[in-house]
Write a structure and sequence with these properties.
By secondary structure, this protein is α+β, with helices and mostly antiparallel strands. The chain is built from three helices and three strands, in the order βββααα.
């Protein structure tokens, strides 16, 4: 994944907290995807302005972690493949 790619949610998708399920979900016309915390944190940062390097740096700072780049890349590859992000 390029450092300079700036992912954002695809037009038909919306990220929101679902109280009934007590978790974050990705809503789309045909249904929803229940998200775990790492997926949620990555998608919250996919605003179309923040590049992958900055998303990774922000996550590492927010969670006092290092070496998250491979995890971010793996998730974003999956998200692009599912058309959740563009």
């Amino acid at each position: 994944m390029s450092d300079y790619r700036t992912p954002k949610l695809a037009p038909m998708y919306r990220l929101q907290f679902e109280p009934a399920q007590d978790c974050w979900v990705l809503l789309y016309p045909e249904g929803l995807v229940k998200l775990n915390q790492p997926a949620t944190e990555i998608l919250k940062r996919c605003d179309g302005k923040t590049d992958v390097a900055a998303i990774t740096a922000d996550l590492e700072q927010a969670f006092s972690a290092t070496g998250l780049r491979d995890d971010v890349d793996d998730f974003l590859k999956h998200a692009y493949g599912q058309h959740w992000v563009v």
